[in-house]
Amino acid sequence: MTKDKTSCLHPIDWRYGSEEMRQLFSREKRLELLLKVEAAIAYAHAIVGDIPKKAAEEIEKKASTKFVTLERVAEIEREISHDIASVVRAFAEQVGEFGAYIHLGATSNDIIDTAEAVRTKQALGLIEQRIVKVIQNLIKIVKEHKETVCIGRTHGSQAVPYSFGHKIAIWLEELIRHLENIRYISQNRVMGKLSGAVGTRAAYGIHADRIVQITMDRLGIKPAIITNQLLSREIIAEIFLSLILLASSLDKFATEIRNLQRTEIGEVREPFKSDKQVGSSTMSHKRDPEKSERISSLARMMRGYATPVLENIVTWHERDLANSANERYLHPSIFLTLDQILLDFDFVTEGLVINTEKMKENLNLSKGIVMAEAVMTELVRNGMNRQVAHELLRELSMKAYQENKPLFDELKRSKEIMKTIAEKELKEIFDHPENYLGTAKEQIEIVLLLAEKAINK
Predict the structure, then answer these.
(1) In whole angstroms, what is the distance from residue 231 CA to residue 115 CA?
(2) Structural domain span for residue 415
(3) Same domain, yes or no, for 213 and 158?
(4) Is residue 15 part of a domain?
(5) CA 262 centroid distance within chain
């Protein structure tokens, strides 16, 4: 059933997330997965000899929305007010006498949690692909700009010379860790469960444990070791909080791009289709970091989802329904929102406009004050007491700042400084800020190696 997007209520139905991710979280896909789980359970029962092989084959054949429709399931649910029982009845109608073997031994959450695990694994696969693409974009930027000198800023103020490649390499290394974490949770935290009413698997009979393993193998996911009627929501929370952390990292990167795109800084710009794109409905000249702003906006939503995710960990006895309703929002919302964030960051980083001339201009704005630490370090290397050197540079930097004069000129007038360092040596420090980048290049090379290894796994 195709949804008319003009009548959609929620933005994730038409505005945010890829069509691929939206399809994965569609009602049709959810029903299909519920049917597949039921069919996998029947297959397992047939393997252990609980039901006829022919029954399992017919159930497998009809485990499709081509036969079990959303409309029929909804019609039954209006009558009996139970979603999974409605699926079971609609499914049973399609297989005739073999309907008696559907849902054998199962409770509703066996089907719900296991179907959701299958969907989560597929969604994480899409997220992994998006991260790899962004990492490839960043690798390219880092390689091109590992020797590009810019100004580093702390507390919003100019600090010392910096490497633009180093800045982006920090993002790159952070994303490598997120990629490794996504892969880890996909392999180790996505779990299905068949536990029955309270977790004992009693209704599955003497082959219960084998039925669980066969079912999960057929669905391609791990079985939970032990549960009550619910898969522990702590496991789901770990998955979702990992995604929320990823969104927050992307927000951090996007915020830096937004700041660097300020007119007064102007060191980077988001891609902009100048021939067509409109920046403002009234200010024709506008070219704003709209995609980066959207990343920040959606990341705020992601952090908001952390509260119900954590609240759902707490359940009554062997099962209650307090988690159920909000999870219908959370699962699609978290994945579709993150999908859009990653798509936007891919767009931004693939075409990021980097203005190295503006970086040079900004580096020289302070008339050399940003080289104070470099001078202090050289004075100490030449034998001056570190605390004495710090105080001297502090006093002279403040004087240069207040009088809007080059720091180099102020330092030349200091007898204490000039008896410790030659004028030529001092001038070299101010003329070549690129020499004060420490081991930035070496650090970058390490991250590039890690990145290449991560995306080629």
Answers:
(1) 12
(2) 366-421
(3) yes
(4) no
(5) 25
The 3-state secondary structure of 383-398 reads CCCHHHHHHHHHHHHH
Q: What is the pLDDT of residues 261-278, one digit of tens each?
A: 999 999 999 997 766 665
Residues 279 and 285: beta-carbon distance below 8 Å: yes
Last residue of a domain, one of 101, 125, 140: 101
> Which residues have a catalytic role annotated?
155, 280
pLDDT tens-digit profile of 397-433? 999 999 999 999 999 999 999 999 999 999 999 999 9
**At 8, is the pLDDT very low, low, confident or very high (cuts 50, 70, 90)?**
confident
Are 112 and 245 contained in the same domain?
yes
Distance CA 132, CA 345 (A): 12
191 and 203 share one domain: yes
| Cβ proximity of 134 and 349 under 8 Å | yes
What's this model's pTM, rounded to 2 decimal places?
A: 0.94
Question: Are the beta carbons of 105 and 46 closer than 8 angstroms?
Answer: no
CATH, residue 134: 1.20.200.10
Q: How far apart are CA 254 and CA 257, in angstroms?
A: 5
